[in-house]
Amino acid sequence: MSFSQSLFASLRSSLPTAGPSTSRVAAFSTTAPSLVSKRKLLAKRRKAANLALQSSRIIPPESIDPVLGRVHYRAPSSRSTAPTPPEATNPWQGCRLQRILLDYDQIAYSAPPNYTSGERPPLFLPGISEQDQALLFGAIPHASSELKFAAKRGEGTGVELEQAKQAEMMMRILDLRNSGKEAVKVLNRQRVVDEFGNGTDTGSSAVQAALLTAKIHNLLAHATQNPKDTLNKRSLRLLVQQRARHLKYHKRTRGEESYDALLADLGLERGAVEGELLIPY
């Protein structure tokens, strides 16, 4: 071998060979190094286990009625090990709002009072206060009898009987039994304002939610009797959404205790008026 050939062989052996380096291949890895400590990892696992345990104790409702504000639960079987759901109750029955609202059918088909024995109608048209009743059926007939009796100089023996008949006629005209549904609605609105707004406050969230709840129950009865009335069904959905906004505002401004008290007064449940409202109408 010549000197040039031996020099070329030595230079060729000193050059790097083709292909990846073995040192670089050993240091390369596709997985990122773990930056989470074992303490944090255990804490995350413990939190996930606690959340799973809490979710297992929560009883999912079978159905939610956002119109009436009720949450329905399925009755558990005898072999079920799940927690017992709450008892099925109707929060509307006996609530504060339900006690003050008047039913037109009950008023229209009720027995008339005995006018001959001095009875008066229990309810009058809207706008007739107790002072007006005392004036119309007490002071005015008595004053008219006195004036007529004095004008006839003691000869008017049938004056009091005539005034009593006129007072009875006025009672029959102003009796709520002889009115229509619109008069009952007006009187219900006034009773709600008197109960929840002390007779003067008509714009607070509590009064508005009570008025909307009364409208919802009234419109729901109509929609149930007339299932093809799609226009009133749309109005019913709008009223439910509007009531949810008023309740949300009341909760944000008045606090949790006042919010729960208002829901109890209106006969509603939290799960039926919060979150997404799916109205089946």
UniProtKB/TrEMBL annotation:
Any one Gene Ontology BP term: translation
Gene3D superfamilies tied to this protein: S15/NS1, RNA-binding
SMART domains assigned to the protein according to its UniProt record, in alphabetical order: Ribosomal_S15
Keywords on record: Ribonucleoprotein, Ribosomal protein
GO cellular component: cytoplasm; ribonucleoprotein complex; ribosome
Single GO MF descriptor: structural constituent of ribosome
Source domain of life: Eukaryota
Family from the record: Belongs to the universal ribosomal protein uS15 family.
HAMAP family in the cross-refs: Ribosomal_uS15_B (MF_01343_B)
Name of protein: Uncharacterized protein
Source species: Kwoniella shandongensis
